[in-house]
Amino acid sequence: MEDDETFYARQSPSRVMDLACKFFGSSLKGRQEGTKDICGITHKAPISIDPLSGMYFFPTSSPQSLNCSWISHSHIEKILKAPDRHTTILFKNGSTVTVKVSYGSLMNQLQRTAQFRYSLDKRIKDLFKTDKVAEPFN
To answer: Mind telling me which InterPro entries this protein's record contains (predicted)?
Structure first.
C-alpha cells in the first residue's frame, strides 16, 4: 500500500524491500547489517531504506517468511489490538491493515524502530556538525 493506492507484487516481501534498498545504493542485507552495527538488533531488524528521506521500515515477522509485512514507521497513526492475537494498524491516510501479529510484538517493533531511527539520525547529524562530510545536495 502506498498513499491511496494498493499495488500487488509477484516478488516476496523481502525481495521488494531488497529492490527498494538497491534503488538507494544498498541491499536489504546491507541495511540489516547496518542496523546491527548501530544498535545491536539482529532479529526482525528495522531498516532505513533511505535515512535522508526518512524511509524507515520494520518487518512484522521474520523477513524470510512469506507472511512478513514491512511497515513504514512514518506512516503509522495508531496501533490497535484486534481479536485472536491480531493487530490492526491505522495509517495516517486513514487506511487500515490487520496483521497476524500480537499487539505486544508490534509495539516492540515500533519502539525498536524509533530507537534505531533516533540513533541513525543522530549519527548523521553529528557528522554534519563536525564538517566530516559535505552537506547533501538540495
So the answer is: ComK (IPR010461)
pLDDT, mean of each 10-residue run, the chain (138 residues): 77 93 96 96 96 93 90 96 95 93 96 96 85 59
* Length of the chain (residues): 138
> Is 44 within 8 Å of 37 (Cβ atoms)?
no
Type of residue numbered 46: P
* pLDDT of res. 28: 97
Contact 99, 89 (CB under 8 A): yes
Residue for grid cell 536489504: 28
Rounded Cα distance between 27 and 19, Å, is 7
- Surface-to-core class of residue 63, CB atoms within 10 Å of its CB (0-12 exposed, 13-18 middle, 19+ buried): buried
pLDDT at 45: 97
